[in-house]
Structure formats: C-alpha cells, structure tokens
Amino acid sequence: MWGMNTKQAINLLAVVVVILWLIPVIWVAINSIKPTNIINAPIPTFYSFTPTVEHYIEIFDRFQFDRAIFNSLVTVGVSTLIVMILALPAAYAVARMGLMRGDTWALVILSLRFMPGVVIVLPYFKMANWLGIHDTQILLIIVYVAFGLPFAVWILRGFLLDLPKEVEEAGRLDGLGWIQIIFRLILPMAAPGIAVTTIFTFVFSWNEYLFALFLTTSKATTMPVALQKTIDIYNVLWGSLSAGAMIQLLPMVIVVFLLQRHIARGLALGAVK
Amino acid sequence: MTVTHGEARLSSTARRPSRPHRAGAVARRQRLVAYMLLAPAVLVLVVLAAYPLVFSGVLSFKVDPLYNPDVAHFIGWRNYEDLFDNKRFWKSVRLTLTWAAVVVTIQMVLGFFIAVLLDRQMRGAGLLRALFIIPVFVSPIAMGLTWRFIFEPVSGLANWILNTGFGLEKLSWLSHKDSALTTLMIVDCWQWTPFVALILLAGMQSISPEITEAARLDRVRGFTYYTRIVIPLIRPVIMVVILIRLVDSIRIFDLNWVMTEGGPGSATLMASVYDYTIFKQGHLGLMAAYGFLILILINIIVVAFLNSLYRTEKAARIAELN
Amino acid sequence: MSKSDRDIHAYDNAMKRIRHHRKFEISRRQMLKGSAAALGATLAAQFVPKEVHAEVSGTIVHFASSGKRLSNSLRAVKPLFDKVFPNVELEVVSKPMTEALTQINTYMRSKSDAFDVVTQDHAQFASLDAMGALTNLDPYLERDSAWYEDYQGDVPENYRHMWNLPKGPAPPGWVAAVAPDGNAMMTFYRKDVFDKLGIKVPTTWDDVIEVAKEIHDPKNERYAYAAAMARNFWSGYQFYGALRSWGGDFFVDERNQDWTPACSTEEGFQSLSTLVELQKYAHPVTANAGEDEVNQVFANGTALFSPLSWGTATLNDPTYSDYHEHWHMELSPKGTTPKSAHRALAGGFGQFMPTWGGNRETAWAWIKFLNSGDREDLGGSPLIADAIVGAGGQLSRVSTLTRWADRKPFFVGLMKAYPVSVVNAPVIPEAYAIMGAVGEEVADAVNDDQSVEDALKACDKRIQRLMEDAGYYS
Asked: Would an 8 Å CB–CB cutoff place C310 in contact with chain A?
C-alpha cells in the first residue's frame, strides 16, 4: 500500500480511526466559536464564518461557570480521592484473599448502581434537607463516593485478578504485612488498572447530572447543571452549550494526559524489580 | 524489594507443602484481614444504600403524587399490577434488553479491535490514546444535544454529509420510530467503545513483558497471539467490562433523555427514561415500583451472568491444573 | 417627543451599541455589555428613581427557571431595583428550565425555606396550593391599592384571574401571585411566504389542512407544518389547544366539578385526527420535537407554519434567525362546529411567596417593583419593562406590549390572543399529570402506533384512574 509495510499501514489506520471518531467533538468545538445565526443556518459549515469568543464570555457571565468549575473540581476531586482510597483494599480483598464467594460481596457492593438514579435521588433530597446539608459540596462528595465506589471496586478487581499471584506470596514469605503488600507490590503492578479506574471514577462524577440537579441549588452547583441552563425552553443556545462543553472537557483532558503514561507497558513490573 | 518472579514461584511452591497443618489458621487469618479491608467500602455503601432502598420500598406500595401530598395512601401491590398491565412497561423492558444486548456486543467487539490497534509501540501512541478517550469525557448533555442536532433530518450535518458528500438519500435518523433506536445505538457505541477499548488496553498493557517476549520467541503473533494468549490472560478485565457496560446500558438515561425523551411516540422508551417520565408526571409510588422492578431485573441478569462466569472460571482452573 | 418614545430611543441606542460591539469587537468588557445584567446596568444608568427606599432592607432569594424569559429578565431588572432599594440584597438563583417545574414542586413538597420569592408556571399553582406553599397576597394588594388598580387596568382579566385560588363554582377567590409575564398558544407563520402565494392565515382547522397542502414543498425542503409533538407535556398541549378550540375539554364540566373524562368525544376525535392528518405535511422533526426543535426549523427556514405554538420572542431575535422579520403570529384556529371558537391557551409564570420563606415585606417590595408599569408616581418606570423585553421576556401588561409592537411582531400576536385566551390546563393539582398522560397517548397516535380512537379511550381511562386515586369521585 503506497510503499508502506503492514506495520505502518496499521499505525495509519489507528490515526485515521481516532480522527474520524473525533469529528463530532470537533464539530462542537467549531460551534463554540460560530455566531448563532450561522449555527442555525440550514447548510452546515466547518469554516466559512468569522470566529467569535462571545459564547465563551457568555458562559461565564450568564451561567456562572466560574463558580461551577470550582465546585466541580472540589467535589469530584475529593470524592475520587476517597473512592480510590477505599476501593483499593476492598478490591484486593474481593479479588485476592480467597473470600468465600468473593463475587457475592462484589455484587453487594455493585448493587447501589442498579437502581435508576431518580429513585435514589429523592430520598437523598429528603435526607439532605433534614440534615441541613442540601446545596453543600459535602453532600455531593458523599453521593459521588457512594456511586463511584462500586464501580471502582469492580474495575480494580478485574485488574487485580490479572496479576500473577506469586509475587504477593513471595512478599508474604518475605515478612511483608498486608498494607505493605498492597502499597509496595500491588500498587505498582496494577498501575495501569489504577490509572484507568481513577480516570473513569473522575469522569463519571464529572459528568453526573441528576444528583447534582436535585442536591444543589446555587452554592454547590456543578458544571453539568450550569451547562444544562444553556438549554432554554424555546431554543438551545448552541454556542454557549458548545463553549461550556469545551470548558468542561479541558480538565478531563489534563487528567488523562497526567495519568496516561501509567497506562503503558513495562512500568508496572519495572518497579518491582 | 529484591524478589523476582522466578524466586517467588520457587519459594512458594517449595514451602507450601511443608506446612500443611497451618493452612487452616492462615486461611482464617487471611479471611479476617480480607473482611477488614472490605469493611469500609461495604459500610459506606450499606449506609448510603439502605435508606433509599427502604424509603423507595415503602413508597412503591403507595399512591403518592408529588403534586398533592394530601391524597397519599397505601394501595398494596397495585403499582406493580398497574405496571404489568401496561403495554408501555413491557415495551420499555423489551427495548431495554434489546438495547443492552446489542450495544454491549458491538462495543466489546469494536472496543477489542481498537484496543489491539492502539496496543503497539509507535510514536504518539500516548497522544492517540488520550484523544481517543475524549468521547467518554465530553458532557453527555452537550454531546447528546449536538448529536440530535447533527442527526436533524433536513439540515443536520449527518444528512448533509450523506447527501452533498456522497450523493445518498437523506435518512430519517431520530425522527422516525423505525430508525430512532438504531440511531441512539450508534451514538452510544460512539461514546462507550473508547471506554471499553481503553480498559482492555490497560489490561493488555499489564500483561508482563516476559509473557509477550516468550510469545514472540515461540512465534505466536497476530491473530493467534490475541486469541490464545491475550484474551485468556485478561479474561477478568473483559468480564468486568462486560458486567459494567451491561449494568450501565440497562440503566441508560442521559443520552436517551436528551436525544429523544423516549420518542418518537414511544419508540425509544427505555427503562430509566420511562421511570423519569413517571416521576415528571408526579407518580412517586409508581416510580419507586418501577425502580424496584429494574433492580430485580438487573440482579437476575447479573447473577445469571456471574454464575456462568463461575462455571467457566472453574472449568478453566481445572483445565489449567491438568 | 413623548416620554415613552424617549425611552424607546434610549433603549434602542443602548441595544445598537451592544450589537455593534458584538459584531466587531471581541474584548471581554464590551462583550459583557450584551448580557442581561449589563443591559440592566445600561438602563439603570439612565434611571433616576423618584424615591429611594433606604428603610427597606434584608436579603431575599428569588428562584426562577433559567433562560431568557425568566431568570434573565429578573437579572436585567435587578440593577434598577438596586437603585431604589440600596439596602436590599437580592439574589436570583435558577435551575435548568427543562427540570425547573418539577424541581420547584420537589422543594415545596419538602417545605424548603431556601427561597423568599419563586417564579412558577401557572399550571402548577393548584398543586402548590395543595402543598400549602402559597401566601395570600390580598393584604399586600389592599395596602398598595393604587398600585394594584394600575396593574388591574393594564393586565387583561383572564391573565389576572389565572392566579386566583381556589377555582370552581365560586370565583375569584384569593390572589396567590402577580405576573409580569404572559404567554399564549398562537399560529406562527412566515408572512413573506404567505404574501407571495397570496394565502391568508387560516382561521379554521379545515383551512389549516388546505393551507398546509398548498405550501408544502418537501422537494425543496420547505415543509408546511411543524409542531412540538414530543411525547408528554408538549404533545399534551398540542392536543389540549386543539381540543379547546373545538369546544371540548378534559372533563365534562370542570367549573361545576363534573369530573367525568371527556377526551373520547366528537371534539376529541376531531382534534386528534386533525393533528394526525397534519403529520402528512410535517417537517420530519415534528414526530418528536420539543419547542426548541420546532423553533430551530422555523429559524433555518425549512418549516413555514404552525397552527399551535407557544409564543416566544426567540424567532424575532435577529441574532437567532435570518428570518426574524418574517415570522408573524396570529390567533390560533378554531373548529367548525357551533361549540368551536378561537380559544388560545394562556400561559404565564407568576411570582409567589412560599409559606416557608422569610422577609415578607422586602420580598413584596421586589415583586411589586418587578410587576410595575410605566407610572413613576406608583414606583414604576418604563425602563423596567424595557429591561424585561430586552432580556428576552414577554409581558402581560398591554401598555408595554403596545409600546413594543412595531419591533416585535410576536407581541402583536399576544395582544390578539389575550382577550380570547383560556387557562392552559384544568386548575387542579393533577393538571400536569393529566397533560403528560394524554400527551403520551397523543404522541403514540401521531406516530402511528395506535389508532385515534384507542388513544382517546386510553386518555379517558388514565384520567379516570388519576382522579379516582385523588378521591374526586367519592
């Protein structure tokens, strides 16, 4: 194929697939700098317009995005941290420690995720009002921990089952305690799994809408709720919506760039040796 | 730490048979530690899950309109009976199960191939992976609405590309009851295939280099390498991904709500959206009852799935021993 | 130059400046001028209050749905209010429009004390009453009787009585809210297209079908008709709008509390079969469109006409549509039976004080200011309405609509619709539940999933069940 070997061809294929996959996101990015009447025109265009930053300004000015960004970072950041701290030992216990029916425990842990959100959120709303913590960041953190934890335990469990058991046994025989085994042996080996789990725990809370909608009013409002405000009843403010989506995407991309090097071969075992 | 794989294997196999009488005590202590490790997570979840479950359980036996608390009263099993009598309920169950089966299958297959595509040493692979995962990150609200806009049947981008770019007929996408569900599936696969791919990729990347090296020396490569070596090794990860995608696609809400709200007519009325509609109309009791039915449905599916998993895992272990 | 003309000029100039900056400059400071708060600030700069009430103080939290029509209007009026009441801390909070109605119900149901003033849709007021959330405004109105007289003289009667409770055989009851906002379901049409073809705006449903046939041109991607037919409330309102115009209703006689469902009737059949028939000439989005999608296809010129659409300032907004000058609004059609008449569904968002809120006096000062007319001796100013209109709001006061009529064709439609309007839902707590249930059946019928007869029977059955559960028949 045009003087390429198979390997180059596959590399090219990978690049093409990724670019095609991203076209809709690119479309959002373009819409975020288009004047509104051009977005609404009957013929779509990728480039023939004068770019504008008005939507980006509007999203801060009219939709209080500055506050929402701060709230999102705090709530999601803290809850992700707590989730990972709780999930690692739990996943280890379920996956590795020969619990009778370890999967049953895992299932119990997962079951909160089975209910449709709206059924869970109403009791939480009531409880929050009763405790006087409605519209606080703490409330959202608690809820995101509750919903992130099962997911994290399950994914981590999968990765831990993957690891060779011999390493821990050797560690135990060398007189290491459980904590040491987890932190000094398992943690480095399971790095790709932990990185991926962190990323997805983060993203699920980052984009969570229903709980944020019900459990906040104004002080603790997060980005998904602020973003939803760009949907007016008689028209969608496409420009603001797209600009907001881009702003919401940015921290995620940063998180991935920070963590993605852990999703690479060799690093894990290199640390053990 | 100076322990290596080889030593570890040696020492453990060498010592284990020599102390048979202590195996029970070790196991018991190990189990105790296991429960201690598990406890914080379970405790947090029980506290946070118990209250809503009890609350909703009670609610599901009541008529309790959101808009009029005065008329609330207990009605026994009637909410459940009403649901079973309702053709839209059965339609929503059917749609949800079809949906879950189709999208999870497509995402697993496609995700695996893309993971393979990205599981290679090339310059910029990290960047490529980071870019590819973006669909999972973009706000589902914004993305769902934008997809709806893209699929607008007359002047949307998708039809414009089909028509102006390729000279094809414009399609009806979301605006016809026969094509709406398929269109939603396309978007869901677009969003979640990268998720599957990235987790599988992380699984592939944590296969130890020794094994990859051994496979290379044994001239196992290409298709055989993935089917014979990679898939068996990352089976736990694959199973977890299937399970999580299965549960989450049965609970599909965001995209479904933003893009169609269950329409046209009731062509895309899947479980969570239907339940939310019931909430918006104010029928709290009915909403809770439906929530419980979904909970039971998912439990049945997951338990069945896990049981089959157990059986195959056991079989695999026995095969390994032989 | 009369006083109000001067205001219009001042406002127009402000708007022109804003638009000018929008087009050519992209510095943050100037862009900010385009926002509601900045618009309010621009207007506030010209505002010289007759009296300043430093004695009124305290913090009030006002909850309103997000969006141009509601929370934005409030934010635009706030700078003016701040000038008259410098010691009042007013905070406007909002939630997404799409969920705000149920959110307010959720808050009120739990007796939340988070808000001192709330803006809520008219159809929810019976429900708010059932929850005990409404404060009787009569004492405040009696005290400010001159102000109230002015309000009564300017806002059409059916839009004032919308907020009176309870309904039933003994009106008008007590006043639970006042509203600067008003709306009606109207016929939307592209005047340029109708003029060119020499077609008149249809006044009966038979004419509607004829007109749709004539202007339908799918080959050139110009569809005759579009309407918000998304399942649930949107399609419910389409059906209810048609039903009322044929002389039907959800119940045999709501006023005299005969709660026998009445969808499966001649009027119901006519209404639903017309909607199903119209689907032949529909823009494809109609099958599952919310109002936003309908306005989108109106804005891009691919749909030309809608017999029933909720009024909105959006289509007359030059930054939204290239056809902003051509979209005009008229009275919605009526049926052809003797019981038929032009009956525009009336809507509106009113301000109430939740039972559990605080700062009553301050809250009332704000509500009064917001609902003020042009008369400065009563604490009002033309600039208040200008701020609301400029932010994208729509008004219940006829004097303001008149003042703006030449620039907003939409307001002309509103003025025509107001006198013949009827409330947009039965005034019972079950209103929204009924609208949603009916809407589901209607959407299925329009999308060919069930017959018209089956849909109507299902509507009756579901309404009956709802009413039974709420004890109406016992």
From this structure: yes
Which H or E element spans position C223? Answer: strand C223-225
Strands C223-225 and C183-190: unpaired
State the virtual CA torsion across C233, C238, C239, C244 in degrees, nearest 10.
120
Would you say B6 and A189 are in contact if contact means Cβ atoms under 8 Å apart?
no
Does any domain span residue B282? yes
Predicted confidence (pLDDT) at residue B14 exceeds the cutoff of 50: no
Grade residue A154 by pLDDT with cuts at 50, 70 and 90.
confident
CATH number of C183-346+423-469: 3.40.190.10
Q: How many CB atoms lie within 10 A of CB C272?
A: 27
Does A123 contact C at CB distance below 8 Å?
no
pLDDT of the residue at C108: 93
Tell me the sheet residues that pair with C330: C187
Write phi, then psi, for B314 (nearest 5 degrees): -65, -45
End-to-end CA separation in angstroms for chain A: 42
Contact at 8 Å (CB) between C67 and C292? no
A162-168 contact pairs (CB < 8 A, 24+): A162/A193, A162/B203, A162/B206, A162/B207, A162/B233, A162/B234, A162/B236, A162/B237, A163/A189, A163/A190, A163/B206, A164/B5, A164/B208, A165/A96, A166/B5, A166/B8, A166/B9, A166/B12, A167/A272, A167/B3, A167/B5, A167/B8, A168/A96
What would the DSSP string read from start to end of A149-204?
HHHHHHHHHHHHHHS-THHHHHHHHTT--HHHIIIIIIHHHTHHHHHHHHHHHHHH
Model confidence pLDDT, tens digit, residues C110-135: 899 999 999 999 999 999 999 999 99
Domain membership of residue B253 as a residue range? 46-138+182-321
Distance CA A185, CA A169 (A): 11
Give the gap in angstroms from C-alpha B282 to the nearest C-alpha of chain C.
6
Position B12, amino acid: S
> Of C76, C428, C81, nearest to C261 (Cα)?
C428
CATH code reported for the domain at C35-181+348-396: 3.40.190.10
Q: What are phi and psi of A195, to 5 degrees?
A: -60, -50
Please state, in angstroms and rounded to a whole number, the distance separating the CA atoms of residues C443 and C257.
28
Residue A109 CA to residue B44 CA, distance in Å, equals: 10
- Partner-chain contact C288 B261, CB within 8 Å: yes
Domain range summary for chain A, segments of one domain joined by +: 56-272
Distance from CA of C365 to the nearest CA of A (A): 23
Q: How far is A203 from chain C (nearest CA, A)?
A: 22
Could you give the number of structural domains in chain B? Answer: 1
Indicate whether B150 belongs to any domain. Answer: no
Q: Is residue A113 a contact partner of residue B247, using CB atoms and an 8 Å limit?
A: yes
Q: Is domain A56-272 annotated with CATH 2.60.40.420?
A: no
Q: Which residue of B has its CA nearest to C450?
A: B265
Identify the band that residue B22 occupies on the pLDDT scale cut at 50, 70 and 90: low
- Best probe of the A interface among C317, C319, C324, by most A CBs < 10 A, is C319
Helix (H, G, I), strand (E, B) or coil at B235: helix
- Return the axis-axis angle of helices B5-15 and A166-173, rounded to nearest 10°: 70
In chain C, the N- to C-terminal Cα span, in Å, equals: 64
Write down the pLDDT at residue C199.
Answer: 93
Domain-located, residue B300:
yes
In this predicted structure, the answer to whether residue B9 has a pLDDT above a threshold of 90 is: no
* pLDDT value at B142 more than 60: yes
Residues A79-94 have a mean pLDDT of 88
Dihedral angle of Cα B61, B66, B68, B71, to the nearest 10 degrees: 0
Determine, for residues A57 and C28 on separate chains, whether the beta-carbon distance falls below 8 Å.
yes
Domain with CATH 3.40.190.10 in chain C: 35-181+348-396, 183-346+423-469
Question: Which residues of C are less than 8 Å from B279 in CB distance?
Answer: 102
